[in-house]
Amino acid sequence: MMSVLIYLIPISLFLGGLGLAAFFWAIKSKQFDDPDGNAARILLDDDENPN
Q1: What is the tally of structural domains in the chain?
Q2: Residues 9, 3: contact at Cβ < 8 Å?
């Protein structure tokens, strides 16, 4: 049972680091910057029928 942990712990650390790197990349490339869009989106009515 303990021999399985020798493989699982490094794999989980690698996957966690990969996710953290992807998160920091998304922040650095400004994926989350849209303050004006969020402010204006609340005013739109999606239920209206345009026809």
Answers
A1: 1
A2: no
Q: Is 13 a domain residue?
A: yes
pTM strictly above 0.70: no
What's the CA gap between 29 and 24, in Å, rounded? 9
Q: Could you tell me if residue 17 is inside a domain? A: yes
Identify the domain containing residue 14 by its residue range. 2-35
3-state helix, strand, coil in the chain (%, to 5): 65, 0, 35
Please give the chain's pLDDT, 51 residues, in tens.
789 999 999 999 999 999 999 999 999 998 877 777 777 777 877 666 655
